[in-house]
Write a structure and sequence with these properties.
This protein is of the alpha/beta class. 50% of the residues lie in helices and 17% in strands. The chain contains eleven helices and twelve strands. The strands form three sheets. Strands 2-1-3-4-5-11 form a six-stranded parallel beta sheet, sandwiched between helices. Strands 7-6-8-9 form a four-stranded parallel beta sheet, with helices on one face. Strands 10-12 form a two-stranded antiparallel ribbon. The longest helix has 47 residues. Bound molecules: beta-D-fructofuranose.
């Protein structure tokens, strides 16, 4: 019936100009289309902490039924996340963390464990006295710190290793720029990038400096979600990656459970796994299917709108005729 209340999920995204977050939005949209009377508002902070704080305050003022935050950096977003929670709005933190336990639940993969898995993988390819290049995501964001800590802990017994950090801030072009500015004292034996797009930047950089060495160099990334990354894994430019699910579907489902008054666990884990060439090929096919679904949902929605417009038009002409 048309009289039911419309529920609103407000999502505060730290940015949306990358394929991983586009995939998340797609997942949110597909899951949300399963429910009647549900509206999703997504705000894009465009990689700006202050803007994200402001946008979260707007969503609080709007009294959304559930607030979802994927914070740019942990420290600057902590206070406003607490504000929302204390205002009585069920608050889901996702992907990146804030430095408080005042939220309803955290939906995300375990980034520390991802780092450990990457470190164990690396250990198999490291010659004695190896130099490892680590390309960092944004330093103030929790996945970068946790991936780093896990990776280093997994390799802590290897006292022979040298680590070279380069900042990439999660972005391919930024990583590429900093790689060009870095002077390497000797050859690099292994590259661990905190995400796939930065792994691609590393491969391209080393191919451009010494194509033979650039081809041999093992490079690993993380995410294995967006098409560019999956394609790079499928054709061997990235040797392996680790799935970092976007959680778009779980976030909407969890929000619906909160709207229905259920209690949910304070941590809703998303599962990960290594993605090699073969896995990347099947994931690419799946991504294609998902895109197809979304396309179909959109087509249906337009058809519905058209039908509705026609219906309204017919009704109003009938109405006019009746009046005459
Ligand atoms: C996308 C992204 C992913 C990464 C995640 C970490 O914006 O940089 O590549 O896994 O954010 O929060």
């Amino acid at each position: 019936g048309g009289k039911e209340k419309t529920y609103v999920i407000g999502i505060s995204q730290c940015m949306t100009d990358d394929d991983w977050r586009q995939a998340m939005i797609r997942e949110v949209g597909i899951e949300a289309s399963n429910y009647d009377n549900l509206k999703v508002i997504i705000k894009d902070a465009d990689s700006n902490n202050d803007r994200q704080i402001e946008q979260i305050r707007e969503l609080i003022r709007q009294k959304v039924d559930v607030l979802v935050i994927s914070p740019l950096e942990s420290a600057p977003l902590t206070a406003v996340a607490e504000e929302a929670y204390r205002a009585g709005i069920p608050t889901i933190i996702t992907d990146r963390k804030v430095n408080t336990s005042q939220y309803t639940t955290f939906v995300g993969a375990n980034n520390y464990e991802l780092g450990v898995t990457a470190g164990k993988y690396a250990a198999r390819y490291l010659p004695p006295n190896a130099t490892i290049l680590e390309i960092w995501g944004a330093k103030g964001s929790s996945p970068a710190q946790e991936r780093h800590n896990g990776f280093r802990d997994a390799l802590s017994e290897r006292k022979d290793l040298t680590f070279v950090p380069v900042e990439g801030e999660w972005k391919q072009e930024i990583a590429a720029g900093h790689l060009r500015e870095t002077t390497f004292d000797g050859p690099v034996d292994f590259v661990f990038a905190h995400n796939d797009v930065m792994a691609i930047a590393a491969r391209e950089y080393f191919l451009s400096t010494d194509s033979a060495q650039g081809k041999r160099l093992p490079v690993i990334g993380m995410d294995a979600v967006a098409e560019a990354g999956l394609q790079a894994i499928a054709d061997g430019r990235i040797d392996a990656s680790f799935l970092y699910p976007t959680g778009g579907e779980q976030v909407v489902r969890t929000a619906m459970r909160l709207i229905n008054g259920e209690t949910v666990d304070p941590f809703i884990p998303l599962h990960s796994g290594i993605v090699d060439k073969e896995a990347a090929r099947s994931l690419l096919l799946q991504t294609e299917r998902l895109l197809n679904y979304q396309q179909r949902i959109e087509t249906q929605r337009t058809r519905m709108d058209e039908l509705l417009n026609r219906f309204l038009f017919l009704r109003s002409s009938v109405w006019v005729i009746t009046l005459l």
